[in-house]
Every structure is written in structure tokens, then in C-alpha cells.
């Protein structure tokens, strides 16, 4: 499994842990052991990086699940994985939506939030 597939699997696991079942289901439809152009366009598309309901747009886990001891760490890991995906998309010239969202995550990660 390459690093993108691993990142998607880890994102799916994190999102599932916090009840984001629709996003987990979407990621499940995207994961493909042999990434095609369609795969890359799905990962770069609005379901990942667009508006309401997109993968990137989840409430920080520690706000929605303050009772889970690792929720803040898990959300930080979510942000890191999303930045890594955005970087891969940028390298492929597919980062139109992703780069804006990744910039937000990078700023939050630098600020420690």
C-alpha cells in the first residue's frame, strides 16, 4: 500500500472513531490499490476539499468529543494527513481546492491548535 492509500486508510479510521460515517463511506469508495487518474481526481475533488460535508470540513474532534482522551491528538493527526494529501495533489498539479484548505491546516498546526 503506498503512502496515499495508507493516509486514506488512516483518515478513514480517525473519522470513523468520531462518527463521521458518511465521510468514511466516501473514502472507502476512493481507496484503490492502483491509483488511476479517476482516483486522483476524486481525492482532489469537492467531496474531499469542497464545502459542507466534505472530508476536510469536520469539527475538531476535541470539540465534538471532549470525553475522548486522544481527541485533540487525533485531530492534529487528521490535519497532518490532510496536508500530506494536499502536498501530493500539488505535486500532481491537482491542488486547486486542496491548497487553500491545507494552508488553513498548516497555520493551525503551527499555532498548536
If you average the pLDDT, what whole number results?
A: 90
The run of helices and strands is HHHHHHH
Distance from first to last alpha carbon: 30 Å
Which consecutive residue ranges, at least 5 long each, have pLDDT under 50?
none
The percentage helix is 55-70%
Q: Tally the structural domains.
A: 1
The class by helix and strand makeup works out as mainly alpha
What is the overall silhouette?
globular
Largest sheet: none
SS summary, helix count: 7
Radius of gyration: 13 Å
Strand content: under 5%
Distinctive features:
113 residues; mainly alpha; 7 helices; 69% helix; globular
Task: Provide a concise account of the structure shown.
With 113 residues, the protein is mainly α.
Question: Can you give a write-up of this model?
Answer:
It is a single chain. With 113 residues, the chain is mainly α. The protein is 69% helix and 0% strand. It is built from seven helices and no strands.
Amino acid at each position: 500500500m503506498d503512502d496515499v492509500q495508507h493516509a486514506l486508510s488512516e483518515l478513514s479510521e480517525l473519522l470513523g472513531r468520531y462518527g463521521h460515517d458518511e465521510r468514511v463511506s466516501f473514502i472507502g469508495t476512493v481507496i484503490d490499490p492502483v491509483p488511476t487518474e479517476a482516483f486522483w481526481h476524486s481525492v482532489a475533488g469537492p467531496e474531499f476539499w469542497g464545502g459542507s460535508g466534505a472530508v476536510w470540513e469536520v469539527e475538531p474532534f476535541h470539540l465534538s468529543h471532549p470525553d475522548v482522551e486522544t481527541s485533540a491528538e487525533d485531530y492534529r493527526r487528521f490535519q497532518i494527513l490532510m496536508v500530506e494529501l494536499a502536498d501530493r495533489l500539488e505535486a500532481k498539479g491537482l491542488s486547486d481546492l486542496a491548497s487553500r484548505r491545507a494552508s488553513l491546516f498548516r497555520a493551525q498546526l503551527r499555532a498548536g491548535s
